[in-house]
Amino acid sequence: MRRFPLRAGAPTAAERARSILAAAHSMTVVTDGRDTEVRRLDGAGVMGHVHLHTPFEGPGLPPGGRVPIRLELTDVAPIPVRDRLRARVTLTGLLAAPYDPESTESTCMEFGQCVLEDATGRAYVTLHELQATEPDPLATSEAGMLTHLVDDHPEMVPLLLRLVRPLPRSGMLRALPVAIDRYGLTLRLEHPRTHRDVRLPFNKPVRHIDHVGPQIHALLAAARRLSHTGHLLT
User: Fold this and answer.
1) Which of 16, 25, 112, 156 is the most buried (most CB within 10 A)?
2) pTM above 0.85, yes or no
């Protein structure tokens, strides 16, 4: 059984990349000088559409005729916040034959490189890390959960702002939930010219979507125990 670190406050680069690959609805495939938009990813994710395997390590030269390929994916916040692009994942590798966008079979791709890019910088994820890491249990449901929070429970965000440290500066325009994963909820605080993201960690990482509710309620309970600061959004 896989164990999660109890004090982890955020997903690793491998977890983020693997979750983006699992939750993606589309990707751009670049090969043979062409860009192809692939939108048949629902339910299977990228790693159901493309089978990754280790680079050629046999004796002699690798088989000829291999075709370079690049897969490009964007992680966009489902909530209309400022700067909705949360991350990019780029996978590069080689195919034994030209890519067929009409094929219903999984494409076999020799792994070259996986790069995760976000506001914090660039991280490289190995094939072993991708294969050994499970997608976040909330990855494929995150959009619906965040939309539900914004549309049906708008009163929650002003309450959760009591947990933000340092406290939000005066002049904040709005705050919205921009991400949720097994480790916690992230709020985006927007000011006239800038914005910042603040993570509110759960008491412990969740293992199933059904465990999210109690963790959200625990955050709200902690927020209620704090006194009002008097200048937060209401």
Assistant:
1) 16
2) yes
